[in-house]
Amino acid sequence: MNQGWAERDGNGHYWPGQPPSLPPAYYPTPADPLVSPDYEGWWRRGVALARQTWRQVLTVHLIAAVPTTALVLPATLRFNEETAALGLVPGRALPDMTEYLRAALQLVGVSVVASLISAVAVTVSLQLVVLAATGRPVSIPVAFRVGIRRAPAVIGWGLLAGFVYAGAFLACFLPILYVAAALMVLPVIVTLERGSGIGRAFTLFHADLGTSVSRVATMFGLNLAGIIVSAVIGAVGQAVIGGSAATVGAALLNTVAGLVIGILLTPLLVTAYADMRARREPFSTAYLAPTPVEGHR
């Protein structure tokens, strides 16, 4: 169904029967910065946007990394110390776990706060990619003004998605993979479409499964590769150095890996959303311009 531009409506559009009320610019062409007809085009567009935005995206995530690291790292160190202090031995009575539980609750609390800060950074980064795709200056202040208004919605829908993840996890391994794949573009949807959320993510994911799965699987693979590399280096550091120094080093390494992967994943996520949406309904980069057609944003 989506093998190429020429096999659609004769004008290079993804769908037949153009509504006459929309200008031609609101239908994708082979030159569209976001929408692509195939996997190669998606990857090429994502890499091109990453080259345009990497400095600004890196800056945003570095700014967010300062408070998140300052919050999570001390809590992690304390949790590790309390875990080691327990000295659990099979067959012996449990020691006093008060401090351990306090450390665990503190780690959970600061992790939630760090996740909220990261959600804001993701929203602003998505806006930076949209600015680049629509030909506007890639400005952090402009992206922040727009992104901060959408951040509460992204956080709220993210919390609701957590319950969906939990239900899928309780069901089995395969459901959690399916839910994770379908909800990968949820931050983009909530950032760019007012009033849309989890249901919209599943709708776009199922519009063309071949397109969706190929994009999502690639992004999963990149993310997993970063996690594996960080874990291996962290394990080596723990074996060679050990103690708090290894924990600090591993945390910093995970932060760096997240920054590197995030620079590429952010534009790939936006272009994946564009491809999914274009398979579902008329859509092009023009919809994301400052003055979109009324009622189609």
From TrEMBL:
Name of the protein described by the UniProt record: Glycerophosphoryl diester phosphodiesterase membrane domain-containing protein
Q: Source species, please?
A: Actinoplanes sichuanensis
Q: Which UniProt keywords apply?
A: Membrane, Transmembrane, Transmembrane helix
Superkingdom is Bacteria
The record lists the membrane-crossing segments as: 57-77, 104-130, 151-170, 176-195, 216-241, 247-270
Q: What is the lineage of its organism?
A: Bacteria, Bacillati, Actinomycetota, Actinomycetes, Micromonosporales
